[in-house]
Structure formats: C-alpha cells, structure tokens
Amino acid sequence: MPTLSWESITQYVASHIPDFHKSKLARLKTLKLLKMLSRKNPYLLSAKGLAAPRDLVKSILDAFLSSQEETMLGGFLEGLAIFVAQETYGAHGKSCAQGIDLELDKEGKRFFVAIKSGPAWGNNSQIGKMRSDFKAAMKVYGQSKDALPAQCINGCCYGKQPKSSEHKGDYIKLCGQRFWEFISSDSELYIKIVEPIGYNAKERNEEFLAQYELVVDSFTEEFRSVFCDEKNRILWDKLTATSSEAPLIRYSTARPLRDTSKS
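Above: the chain sequence. Below: its structure as tokens.
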C-alpha cells in the first residue's frame, strides 16, 4: 500500500492556504456596490424584509463573499488533492485532455479524474460537458497500444457519498471521505486535513475583518445617498430599476412604497 508523508501535506497546506486568505482580501478591496446591486434579485431583498440600509448592504456583501470564498477554497482543495495523488501514486496533475484535472494509475487501471468542490456542483449541461470530456479522454487514451483498462472519476472534495449508486454509467462519483481515500489510500485523510487548513485562521482573518467593516461602512453611506430618501427609507422602486435599466441609475421618480397595511 502506498504511503503518504503527513509532513509533506502540512507543508503544502502551510505554503498555499495563505493564498486563499490573500485572494479573499484582494477581492474584497475591488468590490463595487452598484455592480453588486445590479446582479441581485431586488424582489428577494424586499421579501427578506431588510429595512435598514446597513442590514441590506451586509446581506448583499455576505452572500457575494460566501460564493467567492467557496470558489477560492475549491481551487485550493483541488490543488491539495492533486498534490496528494502525486505524492501517493505519482499522478499527473492537469492532464492535456480537456476537463481532466488528474490522471493516476492504481491497481492496474488508468483513472481520469475531474475534481469538483462539492457534490452539487453543476446543472445538467455542465454534467453533460464533463461526460463529453471523459469520453474524449478515454477515446484518445484507448488508441495507445500500452493502454491500461481505464475509468473516469468525478471527485468531490467534500460532501456525503450519493445515496444512490456511485456508478453513474460512464463515470464513478466519489465524495468527501471516499474521494480523499481514493487518492491517498488513507481512510481518515479527509478529517486530518481540517486542522492544518484552519491553522492560524483567526490571525489571518483579522486584516480581512478590519477591511470588511470599512467596506460595509463605505457601501452603507453610498447606498443611503443613492437609494434612500431624507428619512433614511429605502427607495425600493429605484433599487429595483438598477437590475433592469442601463445606465445603471436613471430612474429619477423613485419613491418609497406605500404602506398598505394601514389602509
């Protein structure tokens, strides 16, 4: 059974996880309120009953950052998975075949692996594209006279293994514990990597949190000046117009919605 150096894993995480935190901070510093608002569903914001400008700004900002963090950390986890497979099986990261993140030989088979962050990563069209990439990679590989039996894997870095069969016809789906065990032969690796990923997270987030508060203050002031009346009430019709008109703000007759509950 192949062995995996825990020291090499911790060194990899220690040298690469700071990039995740730096990317978070850099992205935060480039955000523009009006651009974010133009992409939000104004009806959802209204339905959530967010009456205070600061609460609305925080809701929008937090939702956006959460999505961005998921993408950024997904990139880190993909890199870690490739590193683990290279250390354990001498795998090849970033195959020349489109859409294939990892190629490894194990137990007399060649595996083509597409790595995703979590199990619910794509719609039917995106899954169809992955299937097409798998098919193309298998076709090219099968032309080699030295080709091993081959199998395609959709590896998800976190999440529960599907309750239905892991076999999806033309590929196998491995999630969370099953995926990390597949690339490392260590059934507990998925738990072990939690600690080094979170090491010094509090300290690394302090600069981010300080910048976050500055952005919230700045965005709230900007929001009030553009989307609130003199009594600090949100002008919902003007806010709604930003998602459907160009240029972004040109709806000059905005007014607070009438409170019909007292009629």
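The radius of gyration is 24 Å.
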